[in-house]
Design brief:
The chain is mainly α. It is built from four helices and no strands. The protein has a domain of about 45 residues.
Length: about 170
């Protein structure tokens, strides 16, 4: 019984040999599988001369092949369209997150500048120092500019959010 068991890889290697005969450059996986199925069937029936071409299943498969191929292409187009749509949505979401992060950073900076300007103004009031007032006014101008930038970011955020809703 032990001698009956196969010790080689002949069937596997034969399969690789058939695959080498079937393959051509730039073939899709489905094409390789289909060609391999045809080769297996032809070898099963004993050669091309034994293939029954009058078989109703074979004739039906041949007549519906173009319809199946068209359906496959339509499916690919739909998949590509949904992939493109999801990529656009993802890009918009990333832009939205970046703008939100930038807005939070600008708000934090503006608040810090306002606080520092208030502190300098209070210090100038106590010590009657005009340099502190000048610094305070400079910080307030910078804070106001940051608030203007925040308003511009709000407009950009609204436009991106509108684009996300539209898609």
């Amino acid at each position: 019984m032990l001698l009956v068991l196969s010790h080689g890889q002949a069937t596997v290697e034969r399969g690789f040999s058939v695959n080498m005969q079937v393959e051509t450059d730039n073939m899709h996986e489905e094409s390789v599988v289909a060609k391999r199925t045809i080769c297996d069937y032809v070898s099963y029936v004993g050669g091309t001369q034994h293939v029954d071409v009058t078989n109703k299943k074979l004739i039906l498969a041949a007549t519906t092949a173009r319809h199946k191929y068209s359906a496959y292409l339509n499916e690919l187009h739909v998949k590509e369209a949904t992939d493109a749509k999801s990529k656009k949505r993802k890009a918009l979401q990333q832009d939205l997150e970046q703008l939100k992060t930038k807005k939070r950073r600008l708000q934090k900076d503006a608040e810090a500048l306002e606080k520092e300007a208030d502190d300098l103004a209070a210090k100038a009031e106590q010590k009657h120092d005009f340099m502190c007032i000048t610094k305070s006014n400079s910080l307030r101008k910078t804070a106001k500019q940051k608030l203007v930038d925040i308003q511009e970011l709000n407009l950009q955020l609204e436009s991106i959010q509108q684009q996300c809703r539209d898609k």
